[in-house]
What does this fold into?
Amino acid sequence: MPVFKIHHITQYSYDRPVRESVNEIRIYPFPEARMEILMHELFITDEPDLHIFSDYWNNKTAVFNLKEPHTELMIESRLLVRTTAMGQLPHFNATREELEREVSGSLKLMELTRPDQITAQQEIDDIVLKINQPWKSVAAIVQDCSQYIYQYFKYIKGITDIETTVDEILQHKSGVCQDFAHVMLQVLRTLGIPSRYVSGYICPNKNGMRGEGATHAWVEAWLPAQGWAGIDPTNNVWVTNAHIPLAVGRNFTECSPVRGTFKGPARQQLTVYVSVGYEDGHVFEEKNAVKSQAFGSAPVEEPVTEGFAAQQQQ
It folds into this structure.
């Protein structure tokens, strides 16, 4: 049962004072049985009042407003978490017929089977033809989808951003974890398999998996008689006890760690720092500056940071 110490700082700096910075954050651990939260501390500039609630997908969410003029906003999370269950392979005997019966009785599951409207749907349909055979179980189809993305899409940082569409990802067949998750969601939903986006951390401690030292993204698929099962197409693995979820949603925009707006003609700089500490004393950390955005709007935070991608290319 490994214990991870995760330190996550999101810092906005403005070149002139701004006001009424309204932000929505989802950086609380997602409630699930396989994790034990030993400690979680949250520090925010000027200690604003937090309106805390559970959103539509059961994510613990907080909203706050910094009304007074300020030139900096820092959101700091310190998390100590123990994963209490080993990563387990899903059941590979559940059929599509069983899935259809379960989906028909749940409006939320039905909602998560609806693919987005995209221009390049034919390319998604071609992937479906390659991985979908009538004798396969639901879990086998999900696994083959992850394998396909891992094999035919290149992990390259810097060619996509938080607004990159599935059409654009399909065009250059490259990207990072957020992109791979969105492609996988489109494929699985085209197949009628309920699936959702997961935002969180990965803590592999030098075992070769991509995503350490940054907020990470993967997918959960609904398996009959089992429920949600996580799979990580960036690493082509079923979710292990090194994956720490923060939030789930239909896509990235519904579970991004930080998003908000402010008033004022200022240009901002976003810096993201993430460190992961392990029981053996090893600490992995990255601090990365994200490009400035347009005046008057605060961007959502990227799930994979610039510095981490550069390290992976080494």
Notes: The CA atoms of residues 73 and 106 lie 41 Å apart. The first strand starts at residue 3 and ends at 25. The helical segments are 96-104, 107-111, 121-131, 138-152, 166-172, 177-190, 306-312. The chain has seven helices and 15 strands.
